[in-house]
Amino acid sequence: xxxxxxxxxxxxxxxxxxxxxxxxxxxxxxxxxxxxxxxxxxxxxxxxxxxxxxxxxxxxxxxxxxxxxxxxxxxxxxxxxxxxxxxxxxxxxxxxxxxxxxxxxxxxxxxxxxxxxxxxxxxxxxxxxxxxxxxxxxxxxxxxxxxxxxxxxxxxxxxxxxxxxxxxxxxxxxxxxxxxxxxxxxxxxxxxxxxxxxxxxxxxxxxxxxxxxxxxxxxxxxxxxxxxxxxxxxxxxxxxxxxxxxxxxxxxxxxxxxxxxxxxxxxxxxxxxxxxxxxxxxxxxxxxxxxxxxxxxxxxxxxxxxxxxxxxxxxxxxxxxxxxxxxxxxxxxxxxxxxxxxxxxxxxxxxxxxxxxxxxxxxxxxxxxxxxxxxxxxxxxxxxxxxxxxxxxxxxxxxxxxxxxxxxxxxxxxxxxxxxxxxxxxxxxxxxxxxxxxxxxxxxxxxxxxxxxxxxxxxxxxxxxxxxxxxxxxxxxxxxxxxxxxxxxxxxxxxxxxxxxxxxxxxxxxxxxxxxxxxxxxxxxxxxxxxxxxxxxxxxxxxxxxxxxxxxxxxxxxxxxxxxxxxxxxxxxxxxxxxxxxxxxxxxxxxxxxxxxxxxxxxxxxxxxxxxxxxxxxxxxxxxxxxxxxxxxxxxxxx
Length: 639
What we know:
By secondary structure, this protein is α+β, with helices and mostly antiparallel strands. The chain is 46% helix and 20% strand.
């Protein structure tokens, strides 16, 4: 008893070790295949990434080339605009000026004094001038001794000067002095001294960048200030608006007297101050010791929009077919966007980021595209497809490998099982033969019993060998299917007459039941195949129900509609539902090979399944609770 327990425990440990070893080997194989996938996938992904990058670079080249072309045209427009203003005479920034005529000069109204204002600058607010004392004037409004001239739209002209003053005061310029100055006749010399001090203060506070530019221009001969000759008439016209009446009615000039004047005006190039709404273009004009600031103010958005007017029609959100134009224009100041054209919600790639040329170098022009590289989806699809095919291929190879490994293990189990199954009847035959040969059996009754045992074991051995041979024929497609018209009832009767004795020897009762309608029905069947199927099914029932309470095997022939079937039912333990499909695999056994309690090789149901397929029949398993019912369905009666 103790030895029995030890043997069972040893067998149990051996089975667990075998299962653990199989699990470890399977995990190892999975890791190997995962490593293979990673090793192949990494270069594939790198190759696809490189291909996508090349595709994107190639597709964006045209956009980038267009972006540089837009920038080039933009800078040309800025140069052309400022060239007009750079050539303008400093005297045009007064309400009146002198112009050459046949035979001399005459004083006329400056073209900048026209109202409404006309200019090639879109978004122009107005032109302005700061005199050495810091007083603001504008060409649209007369100043000095001319400020009392009656004018049409004076209120509107005054509104322009007030707006200019407000913009200058909020954009970095120092506080602009009031344009109205009250001067007493006894202080004209003090005014001159004060004027020189104001000149110095303005230069220090307002024109630090002009001083830097002046020092740079000394190094660059081509950038020297423009020099304009001053005529006496022009000097007079310019000076009129720099002269005011004091309280006694005397004229007082707010700039230096004529003796200190040079007959040349030195005019610097335009610079610019940019804020969130306006651009202030300004230049320095020097007349001897007097320094003037002249310039004009434009609305930033309107001005910049006009610079790229040939492009923005494409970027106003106008759709082309079902797609929006993929390019976006934007102007940035101090890293903040303040003018943009196009749909900016779906920006994917920056094409260009460059500062504009002087004097708008504080503004950065950027261009984007909202379109991904064409063909990118195809590259991603090909990449996904390649990786999917690789993964499916490796998984398939893994499963095939595992199935081969499992099949090899099952074949090994089959060899062990067949060896055991062959050895058992041979041992019995040899034992009974030796007993009879040595005359160790005195009773004739026992002799006949032993003869019967030898014949029974020989039949068992024959059936076992025949099963192996039949399986070999089926695997090699060498089974000769002979379909003939026959009655299934006749085949069943023949089987009962030849096999019932073997069933009874094992202590079981074999019963038969059939529908009356099935007795005379003939079908195209293979008689030998059906006999072999019934034999295997009954043997299977005998093996697995030997410990059943009801030792009975029931064979049924039934008709249900157009379906005619044979059923073999036992009263054993049945088959777990999870094992239903597996029992038809070659060499598969529900029990563990190391701990199984029943005999057999695991080829019976596999061979039954193959025979049914060859003969156009189907097999079905169902638990009968208790027991197992196996149905063999013949071809439909309606065919």
